[in-house]
Amino acid sequence: MQSDAITQGYARAPHRSLLRACGLAGKDFGKPFIGIANSYCEIVPGHIHLREAADRVKRGIRDAGGIPFEFNTIAICDGIAMGHLGMKYSLASRELIADSVESMVIAHCFDGLVCIPNCDKTVPGMLMAAARLNIPTIFASGGPMLAGKRSDTAGDESADLISVFEAAAAYQNGALTAASLDALEENACPGAGSCSGMFTANSMNCLTEALGLALAGNGTLPAIDPRRLNFWEESGRRIVALVGEGKCCRDILTREALENALVLDMAMGGSSNTVLHTLAIAREAGIALTMKDMDAVSARTPTLCVLAPASRQHIEELHTVGGVMAIMKEAAKIAGAICEDALTVSGETLGNALRRAPDPDGRVIRPLDQAYARQGALAVLYGNLAPEGAIVKRSAVAASMRRFQGRARVFESEEAACKGILEKGNIHPGDFIVIRYEGPRGGPGMQEMLAPTANVMGMGLGESVALLTDGRFSGGTRGACIGHCSPEAAAGGPIALVCEGDSICYDLEACTLTLEVGEAELSRRRAAWKERPPAVTSGWLARYARLVTSGSEGAVLR
């Protein structure tokens, strides 16, 4: 075992002495040392209950004969960080999380690792670390929040965080009363868990099941469901078994597992952020993966499930009808779509797990012959405006907006765009909003822009304007919102050359994104373009900006 390096032999007497100070006894030095990377903190709703998660995982580890050692990582709540300087730190925190887990595991010679993430960047950050470390690893998330309820509308309409963002814009537009906004604020987020739609956190937690790195239910079993307690304990027991079996992370995280996860992502309508994170995870695992690979999977995978923000259904409803495994069971009917021989941390193959899953219920999960769409929920668009690609959540775009041509309305930052969108009479139907210099390097940090997209909805423009950015969107964004436009403006990408009033066209069927300007004129603009000075010149973000790659490469650090 790796822990032998600090527990065995006379030369390790000093190490054992320190371990004894932590409460270990002589009988413990031959047992597996299991690290528990817990992202517990008191300001992220998805993480406030993770102390209990860690306690239950520890109980399972001890029951199975292992020694648990809990440590913590940082966690940023993207909802609280949204719309101000804090959002620039969100994506960057993914790298800090990966590096901190790597540091703790190697410094202390853990034999196995349990990751307890929940909200957005903790999941991919820990997945990147797990792939990098390649020791036995299992993921046991905190689980999704239940949906809230609206008291300001007739009936029993569900609500979530995105409902509040959109309602705030509707209030500014005069379409909602202050009392209604207050009532929604109080009821939309009822308690612990990752926000209740198919947003980034829940998307990534679902993908861990498809990757084989979590037990079934990890992505959909609600945070407050009592069955979570047993789930965490079983995860603790399984990590000790994985150490005994010598099953390391990359024995499970294979090319086939990644392709299984991509199929699930496209079939379930995952967040557009999953593209960034999957590229980064594949890189850490030494697996060649590009956006073109993802686009190919999307082209042959129908959309079988549409949850919030693309519908009123939430994660808890998906869990009720069979969760991730039920979606994958139906997708597996497409010849060659799913590798059923892929290993999982449960000790069985994915195929065995799928055979126990229920058939589509027809409401939350549709059968193949009644799919929501013949293509996957995410699309990669290419063209002279995005030579390296741009991402759109196709399943969240209204049918009337599947093809659109509009007039460019150019903003140099998210803040300027929000001001422009909320100014009555400034944005009109047929406009194509462009927000640039918000990419990984230019932002820096490629911040999520839920505020401008929610403002578009709140101003009643959701089905008449489109939005393009080199930044990214919340998993809760809906509408004709195209992100990750690469290369970014700060790197001199074509998005930097767009002028007010230019014609921009996209086609979600043909997967094209075109700036309708002649090549001679683009060449003239390119020659006149000048690189901007860095937006941030000190601290962690300045280092991040110097090292980060394009969004088309997963925005990883060089």
Describe this structure in words.
The protein has 558 residues and is α/β, with parallel strands linked by helices. 38% of the residues lie in helices and 13% in strands. It is built from 21 helices and 14 strands. The strands form three sheets. It has an eight-stranded mixed beta sheet. The chain is globular, with a radius of gyration of 23 Å.
Q: Give me the count of strands.
A: 14
Q: Residue share in helices?
A: 25-40%
The number of domains: 4
The third-level CATH topology of the largest domain is Rossmann fold
- CATH superfamily of the largest domain, by name, is Response regulator
What is the name of the CATH architecture of the largest domain? 3-Layer(aba) Sandwich
C-alpha Rg (nearest Å): 23 Å
* Bulk shape: globular
Provide mean pLDDT, rounded. Answer: 97
Which regions contain 5 or more consecutive residues with pLDDT less than 50?
A: none
Based on secondary structure, the structural category is alpha/beta
Largest sheet: 8 strands, mixed
What share of residues are in beta strands?
5-15%
Read across the widest sheet, the strand sequence of neighbours is: 7-8-12-11-10-9-13-14
Count of helical segments?
A: 21
N- to C-terminal separation?
32 Å
- CATH class of the largest domain reads Alpha Beta
Task: Give a brief rundown of this model.
This protein has 558 residues and is an alpha/beta fold. The chain is built from 21 helices and 14 strands. It folds into four domains: 28 residues, no CATH class; 280 residues, Rossmann fold, CATH 3.40.50.2300; 31 residues, no CATH class; 176 residues, Glucose Oxidase, domain 1, CATH 3.50.30.
